[in-house]
Amino acid sequence: MADRYEIRLGGSGGQGIILMGIILAEAIGIYDHQFVAQTQSYGPEARGGSSKSEVIVSEEEIDYPKAMKPDLLLVMNQKSCDDFFPDLKPEGLLIVDSTFVTQVPQPRAFQIPFTRIAREKFKREMVANIVALGALSQLTPIVSSKAIESAVLARVPKGTEKLNRDALKAGMAAAKRAKKEWLKVEIPPEIPKEDLLDSY
Amino acid sequence: MLLQGNEAVAEGALRAGCRFFAGYPITPATEISEVLSVRLPKTDGTFIQMEDEIASLGAVIGASLTGVKSMTATSGPGFSLMQENLGLAIIAEVPCVIVNVMRGGPSTGLPTFPAQGDVMQARWGTHGDHPIIVLSASTVRECYDMTIQAFNLSEKFRTPVVLLIDEVVGHMREKMALDDEEKIEIINRVRPTMPPEWYIPYEDTPSGVSPMANFGEGYRYHVTGLTHDVRGFPTSRPDEIGPFISRLHRKISSHFSEIQIAEFFKTEDAEITIVAYGCVARSAKRAVIEAREKGLKVGLLKLSTLWPFMRTAVEKALQTSKILIVPEMNMGQISREVKRVNRGVARVITLNKVDGTIITPMEILNRIQEVVS
């Protein structure tokens, strides 16, 4: 199915997984002018349950709106990594939040500590999803940096634009470095100094 | 614009001229009220959050009687509570739209997961021998279009119309352009042209639909849930009851062709036709494309009108197909109707799934291959 690119985002309720999906769909659909369908699946709990969001991208109108064999899997906790990794295409791209995903099933995975970056650099764990979106935009050509930035700024609450733009840039910077090293940005004991700098 | 199915329902309602919403929040339909609670007050409309779903539909019926296009939105548990007032809207011939974003059931069931279990409830949920129009949607754009269609049909035939969507479609986001606005037809109820003293509120007409006066504008009439005469007063005379109930049915059945909305996809030469609706129609479309790649002559009949059941559309599919496959997220509700229309002509094969997840294209494809071999 070459006409479809399937993205699955997974984590736990409260991590902003569904918002990530919406922003990503908006970036690709509205700013990058492709067909998109975004769906979600979550439990009845507001926080702590499983949360999944999917974005299908195509040049044609999309029929089946869910991911069958994701081309890209981004997971923000161990459980969703364990649950969803078997669905990933063999040549698919795996991105994990290494703050919570410690057992990575695939050596080619990009491991970036989104939540630690959010927590330690911005003192706001809630922007971890935006950091992750920044990283995602650099690790796949499916969305442009400009589109993702416009989409983030259009969705976040007024007054938080700077925080979110910075979070996005931090994610992009972390991903660029990860790409350079190809493998992983080290998680504990230290976050690389560059991640904590203000200039990108 | 990236819109959610539920948001598109709200936009469609506003476009159709809806200016009153009363409802009670429920997953997965809440976004419809969220949007309307912001937008209605800005368009001279009224939004009320009621104490429950019984009162919600009561308020909607009252508002509609004053001449304002009105709607409510809910999910299975709330739809169950609305059945009593749904019957009142049918017998009093009050136009209104009820959106049911289906989730898993019975009872509180699966609040955040999809199902298609309310198809028969939408048809027969309220008691008595009544006609009803039920529509469905499988894309965000259709959520918009079918909401407008629901209002149009409800105004035209003075009857409640139910729009059945499911959690997948209600919560799904897709791109939607509102660029053909002027082409959209909006229908308003026929109002009386005679002076108030000549007005007979439930008088029969050739179409079966009587003109409807706005309450409070001098046209005085009686609204009741009891079977009534042409002036709206309760009657127990068989010569009045029979024609009245017959007219309720006739006004829908004699306009059957105007209510039929279906889409045929690659059915011209289809030996196997999949009959589907709602989110499952999307899986079915993908299955058709993949089956065609394998050289199998498969087509899709997508039902957008669920009730009155689209006999003629199914009969058209039966002209080429020897096998009909009906995938549904219930234990077989529309498939019964398909079997009824089929009358033994073709093989009708069901594919039922009730685990809270959407039927996948692969599952439909597997069923096709099982049948072929």
Topology readout:
The complex is a heterodimer of chains A (200) and B (373).
Chain A: E1 4-12, H1 17-31, E2 35-42, E3 50-58, E4 72-75, H2 78-84, E5 93-97, E6 110-112, H3 114-122, H4 128-139, H5 145-155, H6 161-181, H7 193-196
Parallel strand pairs in A: 1-4, 4-5, 5-6
Antiparallel strand pairs in A: 1-3, 2-3
Chain B: E1 2-4, H1 5-16, E2 20-23, H2 30-42, E3 46-49, H3 53-65, E4 70-74, H4 76-91, E5 96-104, E6 110-114, H5 119-124, E7 133-136, H6 140-157, E8 160-166, H7 167-171, E9 173-175, H8 238-253, H9 256-259, E10 262-265, E11 272-276, H10 279-293, E12 298-303, E13 305-307, H11 311-320, E14 323-328, H12 334-342, E15 347-352, H13 361-372
Parallel strand pairs in B: 2-3, 2-4, 4-5, 5-8, 7-8, 11-12, 11-14, 14-15
Antiparallel strand pairs in B: 1-9, 5-6, 7-13, 10-12
The amount of beta strand of chain B, in percent, is 15-25%
Oligomeric status: heterodimer
Structural class of chain A: alpha/beta
CATH superfamily name of chain A? Pyruvate-ferredoxin oxidoreductase, PFOR, domain III
